[in-house]
Amino acid sequence: MITRGHTSVMANRRDEESSKGLFCTPPWATRALIEEIIKRFYGDVSGQTVWEPACGKGHMSVPLAEHFARVFSTDLVDYGFGDGVLDFTFADAEDAPWPVDWVIFNPPFPLAEAFARTALTIARVGVAALVRLAWQEGEERYRLIWRENTPTYFCPFAERVPIIEGVWDPEAGTATAYAWAVWRIGQTPEFPPLVHISPGQARRRSKLSDLALATPGEAKRRRLAREQKAETGPDLFGGGDG
Question: What pTM does this model have?
Fold first, then answer.
């Protein structure tokens, strides 16, 4: 098992249903990247390799394996899926078992820039990061990404990509907008084109087999719990057992 980086936070959390920093990507969102963007602008990738460095429980690695010859899956925490535990912000090409053509990931939001910059030193063909639309903003991000490491394509979803903590629930909703930032290695455009991923991807790219990765009803359960808490209101007397 790979154990580079901050070993003190690499405890096995396999039994946890939800963990801070684990946000599972709907499988159809990864297929949309490949079918709508990568195949369109880069061509066939069936003979290429990919590293998924924030693999979580496999929600992105599984659809990547449908298209790439080999998938290397790692994460900072062991969620019971993947090839090893690794802090990607400290990674290099030698950590992979073979040369890596692509690095594709949904990074922890505070580490998105660090993940992208590391990935650009490893990938031979391209890098793709699923990021919040707000990733276009911020002075430091502008300097580190948009000026110094400009994406070749920035591809927002026209429909919302529902991502909640700890699980993937096909019934979930979200107010957060997401986009794929995509880099072609060796090509730095002055202005990255905006490429919309058209509506209907959830319907077109979902598979019945994806349900093995799903936790249906969780979003509804959480919503009802929030509503019940709101109706009950705060305990003005502080509660307690005494």
Answer: 0.81
